[in-house]
TrEMBL record:
Region (Disordered): 199-240
Span of domain Cds6 C-terminal: 248-351
Low complexity: compositionally biased ranges: 215-224
Protein source organism: Acidovorax temperans
Keyword Ligase belongs to the record: no
Bias (Pro residues): 200-214
Protein name: Cds6 C-terminal domain-containing protein
Signal peptide, first to last residue: 1-30
Keywords: Signal, TPR repeat
Start and stop residues of the TPR repeats: 97-130
Pfam families listed in its UniProt record: Cds6_C (PF24125), TPR_11 (PF13414), TPR_16 (PF13432)
InterPro entries for the chain: Cds6_C (IPR056203), NTF2-like_dom_sf (IPR032710), TPR-like_helical_dom_sf (IPR011990), TPR_rpt (IPR019734)
Amino acid sequence: MKQVRRTLPRLLRLLALTALVGTGAAQAQANDYAEITQLLKAGKAAEALTKADQRLSATPRDPQLRFLKGVAQADSGKPADAVATFTKLTEDYPELPEPYNNLAVLYANQNQLDKARTALEMAIRTNPSYATAHENLGDIYAKLASQAYNKALQLDAANATSVKPKLALIRELFSADIAKGAKPTAAAPAPAVVATQRPAPAPAPAAAPAPTPAPAATAAAPAATPAPAPAAVPDAAKQEAAKDAKEVTAAVQAWAAAWAAKDMKAYLGAYGKDFDPPGRMTRAAWEKEREARIVGKSKITVQVSDLNVSVNGNKATARFRQAYSADSLNVSSRKTLDLVESNGRWLIVREATGG
């Protein structure tokens, strides 16, 4: 599985979190991140952990510093502490997929494969385009398959003929991983399995020849040819699509404005009844958690930029950059909202950060 310490700079970019408390403070924070990152790359995990703790004493909620602290704890041989750090990050920032991925790596190292799978599924649910989590989830499924095949052999030796080749394939996959020091994709053996299990389709019966049309029908055919559609139809469709995109844009802007104004009725009203809360939360628990986070802030600013809207019937997707500021925290990230039209309103049914 891909571990954070192997791809730390890229994962930090994927975090898409930019602390901008002020110009001077922003530069100082950027220097802190770079210094801790360099210590980790140099194998000085203990020094990196100390430095992260020092910086966190001034900004205890800084997500990047907490993320780096978790990496330093893992590299320092403190997996339990790292699990606690990343778990708290998922609670405070459930929209970020990277802490879930790191938790999965730690759980996998402890052979807690079910927990690792759950964490990776949460990472993918948060950001479906997060390739690292998809790749790691493939590894987890392969390891779970290996365990299942072993169990099948223990329970019924008569299955050895069919199970052993599959078990050998799984073992070969991971032995190659260890030997080469690189992580192959767990999906590679799939085509061979499909090819041996799916029989070739039977040839389709020859179709009966169509009866020769009567002369009268042939003569009448030209008269039945429909007239070409008027040119105004495509224009009307384009106008309707443009109107829908404008309405979706207005819905996104209204959602951001309600969030910034801490207008909970308008904010929660922007979500449809089919909205899927993150982290397997119930709708009621999610609404309570959002209200606590929003109303408790002294001031909130939410800015939407680079908004791109695509509409397909009564469904739409809005992708944009979100600049969020609350008290001393400033976060900039990519965001995706899926919306559906209901009774003339565009309502959010899914949201994801990153990607």
